[in-house]
Request: fold
Amino acid sequence: MDDVEPYTAITGYTDFLLRVAGHASLAEIVAAVDPCLRVHLSLGTELAASLRPGDPHEEWINTCSGDEFEHFCARLEELLYEIASNSSAVRDSYRYAMQYELYF
Reply:
């Protein structure tokens, strides 16, 4: 594992999330996490339609396409609307997270 170098997008995204988690408001944290979960829900739902038994990603796909995960994502967005102001910090947090999702 010493020879493994993570992709720049991965280290950038995790560094961003750690920085937000340690130094930002709850609204900024939720805004930073929401895009990732929404992308996972979308991908999981799409992949579930053609899931074959024994797929090595079956557990992940089932989790990310399930009703509980969808409910969790919806609740997180409700929380974001409840606690977030229309501040530049919250918008930036969401925008940066979306950019990192795009880099993947």
The first helix runs from residue 8 to 23. The radius of gyration is 15 Å.
